[in-house]
Write a structure and sequence with these properties.
Elements (H helix, E strand, L loop, with lengths): L1 E2 L10 H5 L6 E5 L4 H16 L8 E6 L5 H15 L7 H8 L2 E5 L5 H18 L5 E5 L6 H10 L9 E6 L6 H12 L7 E4 L6 H11 L13 E9 L8 H4 L4 H18 L8 H13 L6 H7 E7 L1 E3 L2 E3 L17 E7 L9 E7 L6 E8 L19 E7 L3 E9 L7 E9 H5 L6 H11 L8 H21 L6 E3 L6 H8 L9
Parallel strand pairs: 1-17, 2-3, 2-5, 3-4, 5-6, 6-7, 8-13, 9-18
Antiparallel strand pairs: 8-14, 9-12, 10-11, 12-13, 14-15, 15-16, 16-17
């Protein structure tokens, strides 16, 4: 295997190492939930460990469970020590960080909660000199987003001496109409520029490196078009099932849960035109423009271009795995997709005629996410003249997880032969090449919000155009009126219908 090696000093994102968080208070609604414990507090601690937070930084956690500030700090200490990745737990750093952690019991549906929060924020602003800057993070059920925003507005804390920003987690609605209603509700209180719809896939190192790879290397951008690229595959595979979240998942499904946000945003980053600057709106303009260029399927086109499936009972190794409809909280008659695959086309000059294949699913053989760009075959002459064993085309693979990295497959002549070739890979892993762990996605994204960089966040127009595409597929599936979705055994790579989807174009899915 050939390896890419960095020349000169290792590349480092200057924004990562130069940006410091201004004085501010982060208010986390749902502070007793898994997201706060597993992701948000460990990410904030890492920023403290890297000396990125100001001395007056503060966190106010809110949930319905009665708790003192000290109890909250101890709970968060246990969570950070348990879920911290790629950074040591330093008692001295934690002690300084914990002095800025506060807690308040409250219900997002209770107006009194917001009045008490207003009082608490004024006290923190005076004692910790936060300058009135407040970030509201809604780590709650999506059904509570509108109520929380309105509560913040009614209490008069959506505006103040400094900036006020709102972060909402996915899903942003469950179809096009609900996404519009949600955005309208948020805009009653916050301007669009202050709403940050967070998608952790856009914070992953490989996804962030797409733009540098494309627009920072003169040898690839000229090839990034329909003349040289045969097709693109984007995969997000999960080895686990619904893991006790059946009641939630049967209302979402793979198409809504993964393709509408994560994979469409990754695709938009892969296929977008270069922005003139790194200004957040310039970057988001190009992503939105690409998404608007996707052909929206008509109901009669869906059957040939989109497949849904459900995992069934199986044995994976020595373990017996329940089928989706047998999971606790799942309707035994459920037609919710735990697997979704689709082919779509971008109708512009760069990509006309190039299929993009997206697939995602639960209970697959392994956890892995990647982008695979397959270039066109070379002519059937010289080294590719044998019709029995045609030469493999060049393949560029960007690995998103579990090991972030990149590989390029090239053909080399086998020594001692006249015309026999064999593929060799040029590859690298971020951790091995640059010697330092990549920042965790939430660490990067929280830093972006607090410094006012919205380039990695979904704007309203991008959310709505993504839902327009997905809603077209959902409506097509509904008109098909099938009683049962195609089933695949847990631990397999999905239903045979998904294989037929891509094989009908003369292609095959990559084996990860």
């Amino acid at each position: 295997m050939l390896e890419f090696m960095p020349s000169g000093n290792p590349f480092q994102d200057p924004l990562r190492f130069e940006r410091r968080v201004p004085e501010c208070t982060v208010v986390i609604f749902g502070a007793n939930g898994d997201l706060t414990k597993r992701k948000l507090l460990p990410a904030l601690y890492r920023l403290a460990y890297e000396q990125r937070l100001s001395p007056g930084f503060a966190v106010v956690g809110i949930s319905r469970t009665p708790m003192t500030d000290d109890r909250f700090r101890e709970n968060m200490r246990e969570s950070v020590a348990r879920f911290l990745e790629d950074a040591p737990f330093d008692e001295e750093v934690w002690t300084g960080f914990a002095t800025g952690l506060f807690y308040m019991a409250g219900d997002v549906n209770d107006p009194v909660c917001y009045q008490r929060l207003a009082t608490r924020l004024r006290a923190i602003e005076e004692t910790r000199r936060t300058g009135g800057n407040v970030l509201f993070y809604l780590s709650t059920q999506p059904s509570q987003y509108a109520a929380a925003a309105r509560g913040i507005g009614a209490a008069g804390i959506a505006n103040g001496n400094g900036w006020r920003r709102l972060v909402v987690e996915k899903p942003f609605g469950h179809d096009l109409e609900s996404a519009r209603v949600l955005s309208d509700a948020l805009h009653e209180v916050f301007n669009e520029r202050d709403v940050y719809r967070i998608d952790h896939y856009l914070g992953k190192e490989t996804v962030q490196n797409i733009l540098a790879f494309r627009f920072g290397n003169g040898i690839f951008e000229p090839l990034w078009n329909r003349r040289y690229i045969n097709h693109v595959q984007i995969t997000a595979a999960e080895s686990i099932g619904v893991e006790g979240r059946g009641s939630y998942y049967q209302e979402a499904g793979s198409l809504r849960d993964m393709i509408q946000n994560h994979l469409l945003q990754v695709m938009a980053t892969i296929a977008m035109e270069p922005s003139a600057t790194f200004d957040p709106d310039a970057v988001r303009d190009e992503r939105a423009k690409l998404l608007r260029s996707i052909h929206v399927m008509k109901p009669d086109e869906v059957a040939a271009n989109a497949v849904a499936g459900q995992y069934g009972a199986s044995r994976v190794g020595a373990a017996s795995v329940l089928g989706f409809r047998e999971e606790p909280g799942v309707d035994p008659q459920s037609r919710t997709d735990t697997y979704a695959a689709a082919t779509f086309f971008v109708e512009n000059w760069r990509w006309a005629g190039v299929p993009f294949y997206l697939r995602t699913g639960k209970a697959l053989p392994k956890r892995a996410s990647e982008i695979a760009v397959q270039f066109k075959e070379i002519p059937r002459i010289l080294f590719n003249a044998d019709p029995v064993t045609p030469q493999m085309p060049n393949l560029l693979t960007l690995r998103i997880q579990p090991e972030e990295g990149l590989s390029l497959s090239l053909m080399s002549r086998v020594p001692g032969t006249r015309a026999e070739t064999h593929p060799v890979d040029m590859s690298f892993k971020y951790g091995e090449v640059f010697g330092t762990p990549s920042p965790e996605a939430y660490e990067r994204l929280l830093l972006d919000v607090m410094t006012g960089d919205a380039s990695r966040f979904m704007r309203r127009d991008a959310v709505e155009v993504s839902w327009a595409w997905v809603t077209g597929i959902l409506e097509g599936w509904k008109t098909q009126g099938v009683r049962w979705l195609p089933e695949y055994p847990a631990g397999s790579w999905g239903p045979v219908e998904a294989d037929r989807l891509i094989q009908s174009d003369g292609r095959t899915w990559r084996i990860l």
